[in-house]
């Protein structure tokens, strides 16, 4: 697990690897070299897998875009103030 990053794509990829580690989405990221900070076809495929299998999106909602609806549905790993991961995940939009 990595430290907090200022690159939003790396943060997304790290989050998929951490909070969704046993999913097809994480496997796509791992199979394509891990968190590389680029929103390429592998990251798009990983987001599509999350949208379909973890978030229950249907039809055109499964677009591979890390847009507002996807961000709101995602579980994120938490970091301490110093940037170290706390090794737990939570959806900040749900109480």
UniProtKB/TrEMBL annotation:
The name this protein goes by in its record: Peptidoglycan-binding protein
Pfam families per the UniProt record, alphabetical: PG_binding_1 (PF01471)
Taxonomic source organism: Prauserella cavernicola
InterPro entries on file: Peptidoglycan-bd-like, PGBD-like_sf, PGBDSf
Domain Peptidoglycan binding-like, first and last residues per copy: 32-74
